[in-house]
Each structure stands twice: as C-alpha cells, then as structure tokens.
UniProtKB/TrEMBL annotation, chains A, B:
Keywords, ordered alphabetically: Hydrolase, Metal-binding, Protease
Species for this entry: Saccharothrix variisporea
Domain Peptidase M20 dimerisation span(s) in chain numbering: 191-350
Protein name listed in UniProt: Acetylornithine deacetylase/succinyl-diaminopimelate desuccinylase-like protein
GO biological process: proteolysis
InterPro entries given in the database record: Cyt/Met_Dipeptidase, Peptidase_M20, Peptidase_M20_dimer
Pfam families tied to this protein: M20_dimer, Peptidase_M20
Length: 455, 455
C-alpha cells in the first residue's frame, strides 16, 4: 500500500481542488467537473465501464463497474458521494480549503474526509486488490456509485436508483461515508439513526397584545409551546409520544458489550459536543448508546414574541418550535409524524390553534444485522489492516443507507476509516492519511474474502 | 361646560400639533416646545405660578400652582404627562397623527387621549370651577405636574420629585392617565398593577452542536427553558414562585361586587386582546379580576436555536426567555426578583448555566384604599357629571402612581375620563370629546367638594 501512497495523495489533492459544493448553485459546474475528474481517474485505473449520470434533475453522479472473473462471484456496490459542504466561515481555515495541504500525517482540505477521501480510498483499494492478485479482474464484481447530492439530503437519490435499477443491482451495498470510533479504537459501523423533523406553530390572536391590557386573561402561545416541549420527555428522559418505543430494536448483547469496551473520555466528548458542560439523557443507557441506538426528541429551535433589548410586555400572537427526532430501527418516520400530530393536538390548550408542518428531509433509520457474514468479514479485514481488535460502533447521524437498502433490496454494510474529529462540515477539515491507507488495505482484503461468504 | 368646549378643542388641536415623542431624540426639541405651549396656556388661563423644569436630565416637565383663597384648604397635585408615543406605522392612520381631526364626537390625533387630552381636561376644569364660583381663587390649592417622560418609563421622575419636594408637597395626588371602564359604565380607577421584567439566559455549550453527533447525550437549553416556563404556573394557573401570593392584598367585597356588576362582553374583550380565541387564567377569578387585581407571570418572548426555513438539526447553545410579572399591592418587585432567581436556580439542570437579568423599568403596584374620603368624593362628582351609576375599576397596566405615593407620602387617586378603546399607543388614537367635558365637569366639582373631605 505504501508504494501507492504518493500517487494516492497527489490524486486526492487534484480532486479536492474542485470545489464541488452541491448546496451552492454557483458551484454546480464544479460538481460536474468533480464527477468527470472521478470518471477519468477510474478509466485511467482500468475500470472497464465508467459513466457520468448527468442528465438531471440530480447533480452529476458517477457509476462504474468492474466485473469479476468468476461470473458467479457476488456483486458489491460501493456507495459514496463527491459533493462537499460549503466552507464558511472561510477565515477560520488555517489552509485554503481547496488547496489540499499535507502536515505530517494529515491532509487538510474540504472533502478530504467527507467523502472524497473515502471514495479515493476505494480506488486505491481496487488497485491494491488487483496488484495482490496479480490479475486485472477483481474477486467480486465491483460497482461504484458516487452521488453528488448527499450534503443536500440526497433529494434525487430515489429517482437515480429507480432510473438505474439494472446498473445498481448487487448482492451487497458497502456504504463508505462513516468514521471509525477512534484512531486507537477502530470499529465497524453497523447503523445510522434516522431523522424526522417538524415545525409546530401555535397561534393565539392575530396580533401581539399588551400584557397590561390582557395579560393573565388569554392563552399565551409561548407558554403553551413551553409546556408542550416540557411534556415531550418524562422524568427518565424518555420521549412521551404514543408508541414511540414500540418498534425500537435494541442492540444485541454483543453490540452493547463492544460499546462498553470502547474508550470513552467524558471531557473529550463534551468538548466535541459544542463545549457542553455535562452528560445527560435517557436513563439506563450509556452516552454512546444514547447517541447510537436510542431514539431522541430534540428541540432545534423555539421562537416566540419579543427578543430585542429591554422588555416589551406583550402576550405573543404565535410560537414556533423546530423539533427533530432521531430514530432507530425499526421506527417508522411516518408513524412518529402521526404520533406527534396527536401529541400536539392533546397539548394545545383551548383558544390556541396548532399546526404541525414537516421540516427538512427525513430519513429512515438503518442498522445491519451483525450476524450477517459480511459484517464478520469486515471485522476480520479491519483487524488485519488496523492490527488491533475491532469492535462494533454506530453513528448518531443520518444518511441514505436505509434508502439504498429498501430500494436495492440487499443488506448495507459500512466501510469507513476516517476519524470523528476530522472536522467534517467545519473549517479545517482534514483526513489522517494512514487511516485511509489502512481502510484501503481492509477493502482490498474484503474483496478477496467475500466470495466465500456472500452470494 | 359647553360654552368653553370650542376653545377647549381649539387648544387641544394646537397642542397635538407639537409631536412631543419623548422616546425619539429627534423629537426632544418638540417635547420642549410642548412644555412651553402648556406653560403659556396655563399663564393665559391665569395660573399665577407656572414653571418649565427643563434643566435636565429629565425632558422638560411643567409645574404650576394656583393657591386657594383659604390658606387651610387642602393642596391637590394633578399628575399627567405631555410626551406621546411614536406614530409608527404611520400609514395605518386615517388622519395625520399631528393634525387633530374632529369626526363627530371624536377628535383623532396622537396624544388626544394619552395624555394631552386629559391634561387639557384639567385646564378646562379649573376654568369651569372658577367660573362656577365666580372668583379667581380655587377652593383647593391646585398644583399641576406634567412630566415629559412617562412613555419612556419616567426614568427621571424620582429625581424630579426629590429635586422639587417643596413645590410638589400636597395632601393628595390626582393621577390623570387612566380610562373609565366604558362609555356606558363610567368608573373610578383605584389602582394599577406593577411590573417586574427579567430576561433568563440559559447557556449550554459554547456553540450549537449537531444533533446527530450529540443529540440525546447533552442538555438542551431550549428544552430546559421550556421546562422552566412550564413550571412557572401550576395547573390552577397560579404562579409557582416562592411566596408569590404572600403579600397580595385581595380586593374588598365592594370592589369585587362592582367588577361583577360591570357589563362584560367576551367577544369584545377577545377582539381587544389581539384577536385571542378564548379566555383563560387563574382559577377562581373573573377575567376583570385576573387583569386588575391578580398578579401574573407572562412570557413575552422565548428564543433559542434555529428559526429559519427547513430544519437545522442542532442542539442550541443558548436559550433566552423574556418574562414579565404584573404585580398587585403589596407585592414587592425586589422580592419577586429574588424568588425568580431562586426559581431559576432550582430549575436549571446540571450542565447548563443560568443568568437572570433585569429587563425594562420595573414599577411597583399601587391601589388606593377605597374607603379614603377622596375616593368617595370622586364617585359623587363622577355620578353627577356622567349622570350614571359609577363603580370601581382598576387597570391592568403599570404607571408611576406608586412612585408618586411613596416619594410624596400622600394617597394617590385616579381621575380619568378617556375610554379603553381610544387606541392609545396605536394608529388612529382618538378621544371622545364629551368624555373629556364630563371629566372636566367632575374635576370642577371635585375641587369644590374636597375641602370638607380631605385635609
Ligand atoms: Zn458525507
Ligand atoms: Zn399615558
């Protein structure tokens, strides 16, 4: 792998130089350039079938296929994305975000970790895999699917999948957009939480009213909003929506044992949580469990009435709450939405009108069964590549894994090697290059291992 | 009174034409012009001692004194104000706010009701009083004190009083800045609620954090703010601050009976309360009682986290609550402030930092003892002037009556004749001229009646 490392870094630098910010229409041309850069790199590496899907409405995605020598070998689809987050506030970057800069083992730049670095890792893995085999055909039929809208919530992913059913058909999806737990604690991610977001609007009068005139005699939407939010959790930190936990699948004993065995430093966790001052959460679960395998309800914003300097003694006419629920298998976002509407109706006092509006793009939760043979294979190749014990982890965020699973109809496993402190989505994003080299090593081994395990 | 009415309206028009918006530094010259207009009017009417207090820091106030013929007659200080509210949004006025326009019985213009109209009513009353007596000395020693900062919260009133102790010395303050209950239900106001305002700031981390990363594991200031607000009332609508009701003086049976006898139209009340949809409030009290004689806690604003379009799945770093408490005698704003600080400390979960900041200018509550002879005299002269039964009322808002009472050391009674639907502080402020004429009639009678009642 070391022999290929210099070329790998040079290639990744080139790709990072293309500012493929999908959320910014001014950069949509760059998203196209980024897709073509990747397609050219794949062709140069010898991939026999490379396509840029750029007929819209999705931003350009890249598809490639490299058939196995054995027609009965399993087909694996590697999913990643080549669009990147905006770079504001750009003045907080120590190096220009689109001029990749190497400092020791770190490579700084937007997309270095999320997700160009991990996609490049797979290109490297295939080269290493073929070099180790001494052939020009991989042990599994490899497909690569790299979309350009992940950072925008993958709004056209469903359509891309349905438009390209034949190309994307496979036996296993390898999702490559998650980190390991820590550099000294490599892990196999086995799931991501889903998300359902909503805005609750409580309306009283048609205008604010002076509290000297009416205060104490008419309902206050801000107070009602507060009571509604307060009622959303019980005193054990559990969400009180009807049947909220009915479909929750608890992690296996093996998973819980693994989580408990991971190193956990409270101070670091708090520092990485916006400088929070204390841990809290649902009773009976560890911090990692609260974030990985337990569903939550979080107030993302609440706004009502006067917020300027001094005092304005009004009863506000309206209050707005932004809420998001992180979901775990097998919770159904639609069921949560229904329960929320009922909850709001129950908690709206007489004289106020309540509306529940969907907010943001939801995503169902996903987790793979850890007894699936591909998960065991992943653990083996990670232990070989990282030369350490490897445990299970999950991530608390959300992504399109469930969508890929549902529409393609096969299990999704996670192969990611980046680190949680790579500052993805933030200034000074970086990747630790040896992590990607080890990840490539693991992937190269995985392609050899899978034929006996997955069919 | 009818003979004097034309001059009265002409004078009031002139005064309204001076835009004495005290809260706007660009209009501070107009506040001075307004004070001098009043001083000139008083001199023209024959007041022997007229002064403009304009040496700062208070905006110009007017003082005048007209000694009684009898050196043993009581001294009455009439309090009012000549500054007015801003006129925004000016496009909602049907007539120019500073060109008084008469339509039928109504005179439209900023300050027509609050408070130039009521001060002018007293000038008219003195003329009528002297005309009725056929002398040039009133039956009581009359003092007039018209400040220029009431709409800004009377920030220098304490200093004005203390700087002019001798001039302001009196046996009774007549406060002339409140309405009667309704045109068909004239009332004597007997008190105003006080107010204490605060801002509560709850801080978690130093920055917002992604809820996919930390959601469910660290305290959410928005949720904590909601729980704090929810805990502020019990399920009977009572405020839960420690000892909040300990010093509350309940209204007398006579007052409660009067309130119950007043006409009350729920639809009108709701329409005048910003279009509210239902009545609510503390159990066991009528709507008028809730607003006049019961203390309240009202959320004036709550702001935390994201409020833009769509969803931003963050745990906010901070939440801010603007709260105001309307207070009744003998509640002490300082005691409420202390109880609030303790309440916030008790309701701040581990990991959050809470601050309680004062917001706005507080005011203590005030009510006059309805058995005071001046109140009885007021009722008599109102019944004579308005030719209807007159009952007690109060107002739910706040003003400087308690300050005048405390610093001058005498009872304060209320003599106001305007109407609650005069749209004070709003576009299309108006006054119903016959109300002011009747109010002047009542005041003229009061000066004759008081010598036997108050000393
Ligand atoms: Zn990503
Ligand atoms: Zn006023």
């Amino acid at each position: 792998m070391a022999a290929l490392a210099d070329d790998f870094v040079a290639d990744l630098r080139e790709w990072i130089a293309i500012p493929s910010i999908g959320a910014d229409p001014a950069h949509h041309g760059d998203v196209g350039r980024s897709a073509h850069w990747l397609a050219d790199a794949l062709r140069r590496d010898g991939w026999p079938d490379v396509r840029v899907w750029d007929t819209g409405p999705a931003l350009p995605a890249v598809y490639a296929c490299w058939p196995a020598a054995d027609p009965d070998a399993p087909t694996v689809l590697v999913y990643g994305h080549h669009d990147v987050q905006p770079v504001d506030p750009v003045e907080q970057w120590d190096h220009p975000p689109f001029e990749a800069t190497v400092v020791g083992e770190e490579l700084f730049g937007r997309g270095a970790s999320d997700d160009k670095g991990q996609v490049a890792m797979h290109l490297l893995a295939v080269k290493a895999h073929l070099a180790a085999l001494g052939t020009d055909r991989p042990s599994v039929t490899l497909k690569l699917f790299v979309e350009g809208e992940e950072e925008s919530g993958s709004p056209h992913l469903l359509r891309l999948i349905d438009d390209h059913r034949a190309e994307l058909a496979c036996d296993l999806v390898v999702f490559t957009d998650t980190p390991v737990y820590a550099r000294d604690a490599p892990t196999i991610c086995t799931g991501q939480r889903g998300v359902y977001g909503a805005e609750i609007v409580l309306t009283g009068g048609t205008s604010d009213v002076h509290s000297g005139r009416a205060g104490g005699s008419v309902p206050n939407p801000a107070t009602a909003a507060a009571r509604l939010v307060a009622a959303l959790h019980d005193d054990k930190g559990r969400v009180t929506l009807r049947d909220f936990y009915a479909d929750v699948v608890e992690p296996t004993d093996a998973e819980r044992a693994d989580y408990a065995a991971l190193p956990f430093d409270e101070a670091t966790w708090l520092a990485n949580s916006g400088g929070a001052q204390a841990l809290t959460g649902e009773e009976g679960w560890s911090t990692l469990e609260r974030v990985w395998v337990r569903p939550t309800a979080e107030v993302n914003g609440i706004h009502s009435g006067y917020g300027g300097p001094g005092l304005k003694t009004i009863v506000p006419a309206e209050a707005r709450i932004k809420l998001s629920f992180r979901l775990v298998p097998d919770q159904d976002p639609d069921q949560v939405a229904r329960a929320l509407r009922d909850f709001v109706a129950e908690h709206t006092p007489a004289g106020l009108h309540a509306e529940v509006l969907p907010a943001g793009d939801g995503a169902p939760p996903y987790a793979v069964d850890v007894t699936h043979p591909a998960v065991g294979a992943l653990r083996e190749v990670f232990e070989a590549a990282f030369e350490q014990p490897v445990r299970y982890s999950r991530t608390g965020g959300s992504g399109p894994a469930a969508l890929l699973h549902q529409r393609i109809g096969v299990p999704v496993v996670y192969l990611g090697a980046t680190l949680p402190d790579d500052r993805i989505h933030a200034p000074n994003e970086r990747v630790v290059v040896p992590q990607l080299l080890r990840g490539a090593e693991a992937a190269a081994r995985l392609w050899r291992l899978l034929p006996g395990r997955v069919s």
